[in-house]
């Protein structure tokens, strides 16, 4: 019997080199003495979320994918999207950390993608997100938000997004598994 809803989100996936850079950060951080205080993202799940949709119906997922594809075709063509990220940082702030993440520098094409992702979400009946988009790639979630540790200085990097994917997320005790509902090419649009 199929579930009436599915948990979904839209994300940027990175090319092989970008993925390797993020995996290197993970390996370094997992070796820290305090690493057991963090639930680390598995390497295969590294991505930049453009819009978390939450629980939606399969029909809404199809509507969302169709609307996003159509909107993506209308975005202005420009040079390839290349993102500058920070080394791992506490997020949303060092004073009140919830996650360890790499933050993206502002980029007009990334902002346009996030705005499109948001408008498509509202278009399928979801409530508008009141928070501004802050591009970041989650590496781990702190088990205790009060626990702050020295991350050490790790240099930032340049990442090349390869695709945009509408994912289904299924939660399990050992962590989520993601399966692609739809993929969108960046090469012809950005």
Write the layout of secondary structure elements.
Layout: E1 6-14, H1 16-30, E2 38-40, E3 48-56, H2 58-74, E4 83-85, E5 89-91, E6 99-103, H3 108-123, E7 136-142, E8 157-159, E9 161-170, E10 177-185
Antiparallel strand pairs: 1-3, 1-9, 2-7, 4-8, 5-6, 6-7, 9-10
Structural description of this entry:
By secondary structure, the chain is an alpha+beta fold. It has one domain (6-185): Cyclic Phosphodiesterase, Chain: A (Alpha-Beta Complex), CATH 3.90.1140.10. The protein has three helices and ten strands; from the N terminus they run βαββαβββαββββ. The chain has helices at residues 16-30, 58-74, 108-123; strands at residues 6-14, 38-40, 48-56, 83-85, 89-91, 99-103, 136-142, 157-159, 161-170, 177-185. The protein has a four-stranded antiparallel beta sheet with strand order 3-1-9-10. A four-stranded antiparallel beta sheet has the order 2-7-6-5, covered by helices on one side. A two-stranded antiparallel sheet has the order 4-8. β5 (89-91) and β6 form a beta hairpin. The longest helix has 17 residues, at 58-74. The protein is globular, with a radius of gyration of 17 Å. It starts with 5 loop residues before the first strand and ends in a 5-residue tail after the last strand. The model has no long low-confidence stretch (mean pLDDT 90).
